[in-house]
Amino acid sequence: MHHEQLIRHDFKAMSATGDFASGASCDFHVVVRLRNVLQGNRAESVSFVLEAEGSPPTAPESVVDGEGPHGADLPLVWVGPTRVSVVDLGPDEGMDLRFKARVAGPGVYNLNQFRVVMNGSSFHFPQHCLVTVESTYTP
Question: Among 27, 33, 76, 137, which one is least packed by beta carbons within 10 Å?
Fold first, then answer.
């Protein structure tokens, strides 16, 4: 997965209720790089579906940065297409799939929220892929 590890964004002023102002969210691109590594007598094309799943508002991956009443209750959501079907990715072939993420406030977010569906089974990748989002806004 390829992405910026630190993103700085002007989140503008928070409203009187403590919510971020409308339109102050931060969008950024995430590239998932895939490769069929089957070799030898197991070398064959593979087909699967890759789905980006949003984190629930209270996900532990949405860790607050310790400043203000924001971050922990703010989800990471995917903007645009969130499901890609890959058909017949040949042995040793690779491809990049591009997704767009959106966060509403500063914090640390886990981008590894992808589910792979293949041959009737599904799985998630076990490792975290974290991005830190900081606010450049100064009142």
Answer: 33
